[in-house]
Specification:
Number of strands: 0
Strand content: under 5%
Number of domains: 1
Distance between the termini: 27 Å
Number of helices: 15
Radius of gyration: 21 Å
Helix content: over 70%
Length: 272
Amino acid sequence: MNWPAVWAIAHKDVSVALRTRAVALPLLIVPLVLMVGIPVAIGLISGMANQMAAAETQIGELTQAMPPEFASRYAGLNDVQTGLVYFLVYLFAPMYLVLPLMASAVVAADSFAGEKERRTLEALVYTPTTDRELLLAKVLGALIPGALVSLGGFVVYTIVANGVALSVVGMLILPNTLWLLLAFFVGPAAVTLGLGVTVIASARVNSFQEAYQISSLVILPVVLLVVGQAMGAILLSNWLVVLFGIVLWGADAIVLSFAAASFRRTALMARI
C-alpha cells in the first residue's frame, strides 16, 4: 500500500473541499441550524410555555407516550420541563444522524465529480497509485471531515442542550448512553455509508450537484426514523440504537465492497 500517495491525495481533497463554497457552506450552516438553532428555539418556546397552563396541558399529552423509566427518572419535573427533556434527548436523536450523512456526502460528492468539473481528473488518474489506493484516498478524504463534523456537532449539541436544560429544567441532561452510542457507534457508520454511496455516485456522474442529489437518497431512512419517532410508532432505546448501528455497519461493508470491486480509473477517463 502506497500510504504517502494515499494520504497526499486525501489531504489535497480535504483542502480543496474546504475552499469550495458549495462544500464549505453546508458544512457550516447545517450543523449550526441542527445543533444550535433548533434546540435554542425549542428552549425559548418551552420557557414561554412553562408560564401557560394550557400549553402545559397539551404537552402533558405528549409525555404520556414516554417509557416508564424515562417518566420515573424525571418524575420531579412538570409537563413542559419533561417535554423539553424528552425532545432534546429522544425526539431529536434521529435528527443528529442527518449531520454525519450530510457531512460525508457533501465532501464525497466533490471527490471525482469535483475533479471532473475542475478538469484535474486526468492528473489524478495518472498518479502512482493502484485503483484500490486511489479509491481509499478518496474515501479517507471524505471520512476525515465527515467524522470531525459529526463529533464536533455532538459536542456542540451537548453544550447547547445542557445550557437550554439548565435554564428551563435546572439540570444537565447530556451525554447519556443513548447519545454516546449515536456519536461513537452509529454516527461513524452513517458517515461511512454516506461517503461510500456518494463516492460511487461521484465516479459515475460529471458534476458535484448530480453526485450530491443522488447521495441525498441515503438520508431517507433517517427521515423515516424521525417521522416514526415523532408519530410515536418508534421509540428509540439503547438496544434499538445498537441494532440500527449494526445494520448500518453491515450496509457499509456491502457498499464499500461493491465500490472496491467495481472501481476502475479507466472508466473515469471514459466518462470525461
